[in-house]
């Protein structure tokens, strides 16, 4: 490996870490397997990278039914971290890019899981706001006011007053009109919640021939590109210590699909440790102090993997 290629890798990791620092997400999702070395590298080369924000998501194309696996994992993650109407965490990711297809796969399935979560939250608010029990309906109206950041405070106050007076019992026209208004408030309140943006570490291999959907995602601001001459760690098991549980029988053409989404082991190869030590040496750190940041945390991914 040339010094130029190695320096390009370090520079890309520093740029990615700086982007995370500036945008300050609450969580950083690292699709496995490709992003695992990025997390370790950023933790070594950047003093500002916060490893505590990282959550590891099984997303390898060699996982059985990977799209559904991503959806189930991300929905479980959202169930854990969202506290509507008070807390909708800002989530970012980082992924390797050659054609861009893997990034699009993650975006599409994360979006599906996010929409499902928002539908559930919307339905809960709609049902509670239409309850015949005043306490339940008033609590829902308060949540809608918080969700919409008081954008419709006066309208909600009027609806609250009608609930307290029992006006809707005799005024069905007003009930239907206000009901439609409440649904619109709820839809608007959730519309911009839970965005997902990813840093794309772009290998120069297909610089001018990337996936059209990927380029569109960049234009839309959903992918923040970081150029790199070569992703040294890509498609080399020696550079990725995470091991998934193996399927009883390989699937797909040529047995390409071999794994379940469950993390089974962590194998720190001498090659990978040497790579991380070289990163430390390059930025003036003691290589003998290197401990992979991912080692103690990748098994946490199994929390959102169904048994």
Question: What this model shows, in words?
Answer:
Helix content is 47%, strand content 17%. The relative contact order is 0.17. It has two domains: 3-114 and 194-304, Response regulator (Rossmann fold, 3-Layer(aba) Sandwich); 122-191, no CATH class. β4, α8 and β5 form a beta-alpha-beta unit. The chain is α/β, with parallel strands linked by helices and 307 residues long.
Task: Produce a short descriptive summary.
This protein is an alpha/beta fold and 307 residues long. It is 47% helix and 17% strand.
Provide the descriptors you would attach to this structure in a database record.
307 residues, alpha/beta, Rossmann fold, five-stranded parallel beta sheet, two-stranded antiparallel ribbon
In which order are the strands of the major sheet placed? 2-1-3-4-5
The SSE order reads HEHEHEHHHHEHEEEH
Shape annotation: elongated
Assigned CATH class of the largest domain? Alpha Beta
The CATH superfamily of the largest domain is identified as: Response regulator
Number of helices: 9
Number of domains: 2
How do the strands and helices of this protein lay out in sequence?
Elements: H1 3-23, E1 27-32, H2 36-45, E2 54-58, H3 66-81, E3 91-97, H4 101-129, H5 134-147, H6 153-165, H7 172-191, E4 196-203, H8 212-219, E5 223-228, E6 242-251, E7 257-266, H9 270-282
Parallel strand pairs: 1-2, 1-3, 3-4, 4-5
Antiparallel strand pairs: 6-7
Helix pairs in contact: 1-2, 2-9, 3-4, 4-5, 4-7, 5-6
């Amino acid at each position: 490996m040339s010094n130029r290629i190695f320096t390009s890798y370090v520079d890309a990791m520093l740029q990615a870490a700086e982007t995370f620092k500036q945008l300050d997400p609450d969580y950083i999702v690292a699709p496995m397997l490709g992003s695992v070395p990025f997390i370790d590298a950023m933790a070594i080369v950047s003093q500002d990278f916060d490893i505590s924000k990282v959550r590891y998501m099984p997303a390898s194309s060699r996982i059985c039914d990977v799209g559904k696996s991503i959806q189930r994992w991300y929905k479980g993650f959202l169930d854990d971290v969202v506290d509507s109407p008070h807390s909708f965490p800002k989530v970012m990711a980082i992924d390797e890019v050659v054609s861009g297809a893997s990034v699009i796969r993650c975006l599409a399935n994360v979006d599906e899981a996010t929409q499902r979560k928002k539908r559930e939250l919307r339905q809960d608010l709609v049902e509670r706001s239409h309850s015949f029990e005043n306490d339940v309906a008033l609590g829902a109206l308060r949540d809608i006011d918080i969700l919409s950041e008081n954008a419709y405070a006066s309208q909600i106050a009027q609806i609250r007053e009608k609930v307290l007076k029992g006006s809707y019992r005799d005024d069905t026209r007003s009930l239907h009109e206000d009901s439609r208004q409440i649904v619109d408030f709820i839809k608007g309140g959730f519309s911009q919640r839970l965005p997902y943006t990813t840093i794309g570490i772009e290998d120069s291999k297909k610089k001018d021939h990337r996936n059209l959907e990927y380029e569109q995602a960049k234009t839309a601001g959903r992918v923040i590109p970081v150029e790199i001459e070569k992703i040294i760690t890509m498609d080399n098991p020696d550079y990725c210590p995470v091991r998934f549980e193996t399927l009883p029988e390989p699937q797909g053409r040529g047995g390409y699909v071999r794994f379940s989404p469950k993390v089974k082991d962590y194998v720190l190869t001498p090659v990978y440790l040497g790579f991380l030590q070289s990163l430390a040496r390059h930025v003036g750190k003691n290589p003998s102090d290197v401990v992979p940041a991912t080692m103690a945390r990748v098994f946490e991914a199994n929390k959102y993997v169904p048994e």
